[in-house]
Amino acid sequence: MITDGRNADARMAHEMALLGREPGLASRRAFLVGAASLGALGLAGCSTGGMSAAEARLAYGPVPTEKFPIPATDISRLDPKYYRRTVQYASKETPGTIIVDPAKHYVYRVEGDGKATRYGANVGRDGFRWSGDAYVGRKAEWATWTPPKEMIARQPEAAKYAGGMPGGLDNPLGARTLYLYQDGKYTLYTIYASSHPESIGKGVTSGCVGLLSQDMIDLYGKTPVDTKVVVLPA
């Protein structure tokens, strides 16, 4: 667990400073946005009904049973409209399909009968958004993160992870990762676990989609390999 501001900033830099790529080209390298800081991320101001604050404290509480115990999310930094909830959602997609709506900063898991589980998300920033169909080609818990060589060239301090950064609380991919594929090839886009509630509801990545760790664990457990993923236009 991170216990001081310097380490927190370092972790944020690792999570948010993954290399980007041109929007709409799912065959090129992409990860998250370069060099953002906690202070640069503001909170959205409005809220909606649904989960109460007390329920949210439970839903986003600590997860001590994990390989690397996950601390509670500071929900004071999360707009309540991004709490996980079941919503009415008309879709022709098969139940289980994941739909990313970057314009609204939501990820939906289609449940059928006109309903979906909705999660707040961070998404691609301006110039790095993409849309189209993909599928979950593989999954990983506490995945190893390997910085692209282009990132190492720009940020030499990342070179120490050229052989891969082991999974853990400081790893940018977090507790769970869904790797998105098209036509049998890894797009280098992911849906990943974030521990930074300030990023939810923001366009801060280079095409990857982040859910809070507790939400990502929930989605991951319901999502088998080959699940369809639809990314809507922003």
Question: Topology of this protein?
Answer:
Blueprint: H1 5-16, H2 53-59, E1 85-88, E2 98-101, E3 106-112, E4 115-120, E5 123-124, E6 132-141, H3 149-154, E7 176-182, E8 185-194, E9 203-205, E10 209-212, H4 213-222, E11 228-231
Parallel strand pairs: 2-11, 5-9, 8-10
Antiparallel strand pairs: 1-4, 2-3, 3-4, 6-7, 6-11, 7-8
Features:
alpha/beta, L,D-transpeptidase catalytic domain-like, nine-stranded mixed β-sheet, 4 helices, 15% helix, globular, peptidoglycan synthesis, LD_TPept_cat_dom, cell shape
Shape verdict: globular
| Spatial gap, N to C terminus | 35 Å
State the helicity in percent bands.
Answer: 10-25%
For the record, the count of structural domains works out to 1
The third-level CATH topology is: L,D-transpeptidase catalytic domain-like
Q: Strand order across the biggest sheet?
A: 1-4-3-2-11-6-7-8-10
- Tell me the major beta sheet: 9 strands, mixed
> What is the CATH first-level class name?
Mainly Beta
Structural category: alpha/beta
Strand content: 25-35%
Count of DSSP-assigned helices: 4
CATH architecture: Beta Barrel
N-to-C order of helices and strands? HHEEEEEEHEEEEHE
What's the name of the CATH homologous superfamily?
A: L,D-transpeptidase catalytic domain-like
Poorly predicted sequence stretches spanning 5 or more consecutive residues: 1-49
Count of distinct strands = 11
Round the Cα radius of gyration to an integer and report it: 17 Å
Average pLDDT metric = 82
Protein name: L,D-transpeptidase
Pfam families: YkuD
Family: Belongs to the YkuD family.
GO biological process, one term: regulation of cell shape
